[in-house]
Specification:
With about 300 residues, this protein is mainly α. The chain contains 13 helices and 2 strands, in the order H-H-H-H-H-H-H-E-E-H-H-H-H-H-H.
Length: about 300
């Protein structure tokens, strides 16, 4: 198998693993409190990837990756703190809205990441990307409106949008660490964010649940957060950001399909309108990424 085909397989696998998160978390939230659920997801990623890292080193497949240093400490701390807030918002939001809505709203992370990159890191945004941001935002508003006649918003959807904003900031922090060891980054994310969320859970009066549910949440975190990020990074190294994003952008839509299969609830007409608008926004985003990548390559050549 060629490197490109293997990398494409990694990208699709990363998307599929992350897509499982919303619908399965929705099921587990019936037995696990929200902040505790967020803690288990990240602890599962941290524990799983630490074991995975040890196994790779013993097998002589660790490679020569750059380690994090004190210089990256502000971005590392920001990454961890934002990764505490984001999944807590997401878990509370999931309890108050459908898994299909939550999966689709995850695309708002594109908007948050782009706007934060513009306002904080002074990156340029093309007209095409502005159009994509407008479409994704419009779709998110449609999904968030609970009662069109009174234009009242769904609290669950708003919480998920807050999670996306946190992840938008977190993506920009993580971007500053992208040249470092991806396994080290995932392990730090997992333990830092997991223990932080666990502290919040106990402070809020949440308590541990059955061992089987805890194990299921840890396993979900390892797959949907840990392995997904790991495979995404390795796919990106072979394919580049634009191509990898093209494959990974299917994740929210896989999540929607899984939600419809698991919960067997037919969404209202507004959901399908939002779905079409969201698809248009994602396609424009991916096209813009591809064009920017080609222009960058032309300048290098």
């Amino acid at each position: 198998m060629s490197k490109d085909k293997r990398a494409a397989g990694f990208a699709i696998l990363a998307a599929a693993l992350y897509a499982v998160s919303s619908p399965v978390s929705k099921v587990l939230l019936q037995k696990i409190p929200p902040a505790m659920m967020a803690a288990f997801l990240y602890l599962g990623a941290g524990i799983g990837m630490l074991v995975f890292s040890i196994i790779r080193k013993k097998a002589g497949r660790g490679g020569k990756e750059q380690r994090l240093t004190r210089r990256e400490l502000p971005y590392t701390a920001g990454m961890v703190l934002l990764d505490i807030a984001a999944p807590v918002f997401l878990m509370f939001g999931l309890r108050m809205t459908s898994a299909a809505n939550a999966s689709l709203l995850n695309n708002f992370e594109i908007v948050a990441t782009s706007l934060i990159a513009l306002l904080v890191f002074k990156e340029k945004i093309s007209a095409r990307l502005w159009a994509a941001i407008g479409l994704v935002t419009a779709s998110s508003v449609i999904l968030s409106v609970e009662d069109i006649s009174s234009f009242s918003f769904s609290i669950g959807s708003v919480l998920i949008l807050l999670a996306c904003i946190c992840w938008g900031f977190e993506n920009n922090c993580t971007r500053m660490l992208s040249c470092k060891n991806p396994l080290e980054i995932v392990v730090i994310k997992g333990f830092g964010s997991g223990l932080g969320s666990l502290f919040l859970a106990f402070a809020a009066g949440e308590r541990m649940t059955g061992v089987s549910y805890m194990a299921a949440a840890l396993l979900l975190g390892f797959a949907a957060y840990g392995l997904s990020i790991f495979f995404y990074v390795y796919a990106q190294r072979e394919l580049g950001a634009a191509k990898t994003s093209t494959y990974y952008a299917v994740a929210p839509f896989i999540g929607v399909l899984l939600s419809l299969v698991i919960f067997r609830e037919l969404p209202p007409l507004s959901f399908f309108i939002a779905l079409l608008v969201m698809i248009a926004g994602v396609v424009l985003t991916l096209k813009d990424q591809k064009i920017q990548k080609e222009r960058t390559q032309e300048r290098v050549d």
